[in-house]
């Protein structure tokens, strides 16, 4: 055996031995730090280092931090869902008893798949029309996903260049729907199909890029489509060329949508004082996976429900997204059933209120927040059952 080959073989042996040693260290949870002086190389065999055992306190901490943590699939950084998720996390937080972890995701449409399949996701903010693409693959999807709360409507915004006066003017030109996975990328084309408008060239690039192309008049970019809660920061900040405006949406099929308007109060730079732009809105929902009663995951979401419903009045106060003021606790979501713990909370509140005609009474256990929610419910029932 040549000297060179022997040295190479020795190097491979040492490398393999080092890899095995590193694997053992990683598997043991050892940090790699030792007491005393660093060891020196020696040809004498070394005594094996005993692997430190996991401390009971660390095991307890791991269990504690995981037991009452709820994963909430929200959306992208610039969207309203992530802001709503952050608000929820702040208000329902209860130390070791409940920790809601908002998760940045591709958007409310992709959140349906996350809720169904992604480990660690217990609840999600979704758009109601995003369930449509799953119904053909999962006919019983309404049994696997339930709703906790109807949150807010996501309005359709179609911002166009000055020369565009109607959808017909977009024929053959580029219309951007943001990146794939976002609410605009799913709901936007779906709405255009329902409007029977398919002649535009649909692009799916970041809106920031598309809006710069619109401003400069390059790449034939004529419009951007946003599907999110108004007002949209992108339209409020920065300078826009004169003549840019929103298109009205001549929707006739409201089976999945709600009528909505954009006003000068929302976008003073684009809409004249007192004018309105007719558009539509997609209901946005706080949904939960239908965990079986008695399971650990069900208990986590049930605790989230209790804290959220009890503290909704806080969210409707200053310092939180203004759309919280529009949330009605008893609003229903067509095609879905309410999460069992949420329905039980509502039933209990109803029973307490019906036991006494005056909800905020010394003889009742209803809190002021619950009393306000009960009054909201009475107004909602009167409006929807006339």
How many DSSP-defined strands? 10
Low-pLDDT runs of 5+ residues are: 1-45, 359-366
CATH domain class name of the largest domain: Alpha Beta
Global morphology: elongated
Structural domains: how many: 2
Overall residue-averaged pLDDT value: 81
Task: Please identify which CATH superfamily of the largest domain we are dealing with.
Answer: Periplasmic binding protein-like II
Rounded radius of gyration (Å):
28 Å
CATH topology heading of the largest domain: D-Maltodextrin-Binding Protein, domain 2
Main beta sheet: 10 strands, mixed
Structural class: alpha/beta
Q: Which architecture of the largest domain would the CATH scheme give at its second level?
A: 3-Layer(aba) Sandwich
Question: How much strand?
Answer: 15-25%
Output the helix-strand order: HHEHEHEHHEEHEHEHEEEHHHH
Work out the helicity level. 25-40%
End-to-end distance, in Å? Answer: 98 Å
- Count the DSSP helices: 13
How are the secondary structure elements laid out?
Elements: H1 3-28, H2 56-67, E1 69-75, H3 80-92, E2 99-104, H4 110-117, E3 123-127, H5 132-135, H6 141-144, E4 145-160, E5 174-176, H7 183-194, E6 201-203, H8 207-216, E7 221-228, H9 233-236, E8 245-246, E9 258-263, E10 276-289, H10 296-310, H11 312-315, H12 340-355, H13 368-384
Parallel strand pairs: 1-2, 1-3, 5-6, 5-7
Antiparallel strand pairs: 3-10, 4-7, 4-8, 4-10, 9-10
């Amino acid at each position: 055996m040549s000297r060179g080959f022997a040295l190479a073989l020795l190097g491979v042996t040492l490398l393999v031995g080092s890899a095995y040693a590193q694997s053992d260290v990683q598997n043991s949870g050892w940090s790699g730090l030792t007491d005393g002086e660093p060891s020196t190389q020696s040809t004498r065999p070394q005594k094996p280092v005993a692997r430190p055992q996991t401390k009971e306190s660390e095991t307890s901490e791991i269990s504690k931090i995981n037991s009452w943590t709820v994963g909430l699939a929200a959306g992208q950084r610039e969207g309203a869902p992530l802001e709503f998720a952050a608000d929820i996390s702040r208000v329902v937080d209860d130390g070791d008893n409940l920790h809601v972890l908002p998760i940045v995701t591709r958007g409310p449409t992709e959140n349906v798949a996350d809720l169904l399949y992604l480990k660690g996701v217990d609840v999600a903010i979704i758009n109601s029309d995003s369930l449509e693409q799953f119904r053909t693959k999962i006919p019983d999807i309404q049994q696997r996903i339930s709703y906790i709360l109807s949150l807010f409507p996501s309005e359709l915004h179609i911002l166009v260049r000055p020369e565009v006066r109607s959808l017909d003017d977009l024929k053959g030109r580029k219309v951007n729907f943001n990146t794939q996975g976002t609410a605009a990328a799913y709901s936007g084309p779906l709405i255009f199909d329902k409007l029977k408008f398919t002649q535009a060239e649909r692009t799916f690039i970041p809106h920031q890029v598309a809006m710069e192309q619109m401003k400069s008049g390059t790449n034939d970019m004529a419009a951007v489509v946003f599907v999110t809660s108004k007002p949209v920061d992108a339209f409020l900040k920065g300078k826009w060329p004169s003549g840019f405006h929103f298109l009205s949406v001549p929707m006739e099929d409201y089976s999945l949508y709600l009528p909505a308007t954009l006003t000068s109060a929302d976008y003073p730079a684009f809409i004249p004082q007192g004018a309105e732009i007719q558009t539509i809105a997609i209901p946005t929902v706080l949904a939960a996976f239908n965990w079986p009663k008695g399971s650990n995951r069900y208990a986590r979401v049930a605790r989230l429900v209790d804290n959220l419903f009890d503290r909704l009045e806080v969210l409707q106060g200053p310092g939180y997204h203004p759309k919280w003021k529009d949330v009605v606790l008893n609003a229903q979501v067509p095609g879905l059933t309410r999460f069992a713990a949420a329905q039980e909370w509502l039933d209990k509140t109803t029973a307490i209120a019906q036991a006494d005609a005056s909800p905020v009474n010394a003889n009742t256990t209803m809190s002021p927040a619950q009393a306000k929610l009960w009054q909201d419910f009475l107004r909602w029932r009167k409006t929807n059952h006339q």
